[in-house]
Design brief:
CATH topology of the largest domain: Rossmann fold
CATH superfamily of the largest domain: Response regulator
Order of helices and strands: HHEHEHEHEHEHEHEHEHEEHHEEH
Largest sheet: 6 strands, parallel
Number of strands: 12
Strand content: 15-25%
CATH class of the largest domain: Alpha Beta
Structural class: alpha/beta
Number of domains: 3
Radius of gyration: 25 Å
Shape: elongated
CATH architecture of the largest domain: 3-Layer(aba) Sandwich
Number of helices: 13
Length: about 325
């Protein structure tokens, strides 16, 4: 697996070219020995602390991807090299944007042409394209169900987008203590375990869970929840939540004055009432920690995927005011 951007021989040539003037200037027997010792010391530092080429691949120009990528780019130089010596060759970060209609072969070839030491993939489209590049480790962020894209690759790891149900529901109860009946539409094949966990950790709530196997069932199922629940809980379920079904959830929530609890900050502006989501900047910093371990030589498979450690709660006060619902923060 290739990690160094330049060979030891290439580093010597580059340094030698930049130093030719000084060697000529100090061309005396008395000065030559200490000067060459200084050269050897600097080259030793360069060998211990090389600059790495990082491809930052994104398929989404939204704010979460930008914040995560910026946090990653800030944090990695702080923690690598591990010896604490500033590299004379700084890390290079190359942004590559994958268009929605770009063929996978083309996007993969563009990434490979950068000859990166490591790839940061922001979002599912970016991860799909990055997977086409062999023998380069990949760190992913902002990807739901990454295992469906990763396949049998063992050098692809990242931070999973899975917030424990208790954290989401406790935040809901703290802000909307009057909510006792929670409605949701879910695919049992994808989200049964999440629902079971929610019922186990919040037995005080009544969950009205409607199973679905296709996004086309969502509209009809939502209407059966009318007057039966106090809040609609949107899960990261790829069967029922799609770009086509999302407007149905938002419209039903607003028309029936039923707050929508979601996991994605992107749903706040269109009309979700509460968002319990990831702190994407913290995720970017955590990804940099993982990348540093990989670039130091640790096997990605030995590190494994991680879970996000910090979340944040966002409130859409405008939507709640239109629903005539008052947020009253209290203990769950």
């Amino acid at each position: 697996m290739k990690f160094l951007t330049k060979t030891w021989h290439e580093k010597c040539i580059i340094f030698s070219a930049h130093s030719s003037f000084f060697i000529h200037f100090f061309d005396s027997q008395a000065m030559r020995k200490p000067f060459f010792l200084a050269i050897l010391l600097l080259l030793a530092v360069a060998r211990a602390a090389p600059g790495y080429d990082i491809a930052v691949v994104t398929g989404d120009a939204g704010l979460p991807a930008r914040l995560a990528g910026q946090a990653f780019s800030r944090q990695l130089p702080r923690i690598l090299p591990a010896v604490g010596v500033k590299s004379i060759e700084p890390h290079s970060f190359h942004e590559i944007v994958i268009a929605e209609d770009e063929p996978e072969d083309s996007s993969g070839a563009r990434i490979a042409a950068q000859r990166p030491d490591l790839i940061l993939a922001l979002g599912p489209r970016a991860l799909t394209a990055a997977r086409r590049v062999a023998d380069v480790p990949i760190i992913y962020l902002l990807v739901f169900a990454p295992e469906k894209i990763i396949g049998d690759r063992t050098d692809i790891i990242g931070i999973n987008l899975m917030i424990p149900p208790k954290i989401q529901l406790d935040a809901m109860s703290r802000l909307l203590p009057g909510v006792k009946r929670v409605g949701l539409v879910y695919d049992p094949a994808r989200s049964r375990a999440l629902l079971d966990e929610a019922r186990a950790v919040r037995g005080d709530l009544d969950f009205v869970a409607l199973p679905a196997t296709d996004e086309k069932e969502v509209i009809n199922l939502l209407h059966t929840l009318r007057d039966r629940v106090d809040l609609l809980w949107l899960l990261p379920d790829l069967t029922v939540l799609t770009p086509r079904s999302l407007p149905s959830f938002l419209r039903f929530s607003f028309e029936h004055r039923m707050p929508l609890l979601s996991f994605s900050e992107k749903h706040l502006k269109p009309g979700a009432a509460l968002i319990v989501t990831f702190d994407v900047e913290t995720m970017g910093e955590e990804a940099a920690e993982i990348a540093a371990r990989v670039l130091r030589g640790e096997a990605a498979a030995a590190i494994g995927a991680k879970n996000a450690v910090r979340v944040k709660t966002l409130v859409n006060e405008t939507i709640l005011r239109k629903m005539n619902i008052t947020v009253r923060e209290t203990a769950p």
